Amino acid sequence: RQMCIRDRSDVFPTSTYVAPIQPDGDSGEAIYCTKKVQLENPATAIKVLHSAVRFSGGQIELMYKILRSDDASDFDEIGWRFFNTNGGPDTPVNESTTIDDFIEYEYTQNDLEEFISFAIKIRMQGINSSEPPRLKDLRAIALAT
Cβ-count burial of 107 within 10 angstroms (0-12 exposed, 13-18 middle, 19+ buried)? Predict the structure, then answer.
């Protein structure tokens, strides 16, 4: 079967680079964003846990955004922030050795301004398209510390 490209705009890159911290869009290829979580009581910290298979050359970055208790901004217009300044887990995690070797990752962001809503963004990257990072058991917890 032959594939035909109609014009050059169908060839990557077709648009301008969008930084991961921007409120809308991301130039990464594998992105997952949670819905906005509305809290009953304000919180000051976020902890996220998940299990993942990540082979050599793979990378998983986590980001968050919060709506402060005293802020009337549109949540969709708030930019994203990296956990641990680079999106990495709290402690280094070994690479997986098999396709079913799910290893737990933990991310914590303490001492935040008091917030009433939050969302999580996961960016997955890799150098081998046949071995992308795989995630399961995502848990996000807002804490009042």
Answer: buried
Q: Is 83 helix (H, G, I), strand (E, B) or coil?
A: helix
Residue 48 tokens, joined: 């996220």
Using CA atoms, how far apart are residues 32 and 120, in angstroms rounded to an integer? Answer: 8
Token pair recorded at residue 40? 């009953």
Mean pLDDT of 52-57: 95
The SS3 assignment for 134 reads strand
**Buried/exposed code over 48-77 (b: 16+ C-beta within 10 A; e: otherwise):** bebebbbbeebebbbbbbbbeeeeeeebee
Distance (Å) of CA 65 to CA 42, 50, 74, 77:
14, 18, 12, 10
Nearest in space to 51 (alpha carbons), one of 133, 123, 108: 133
CA dist 145 and 137 (Å) reads: 24
- Whether 128 has a pLDDT exceeding 60, the answer reads yes
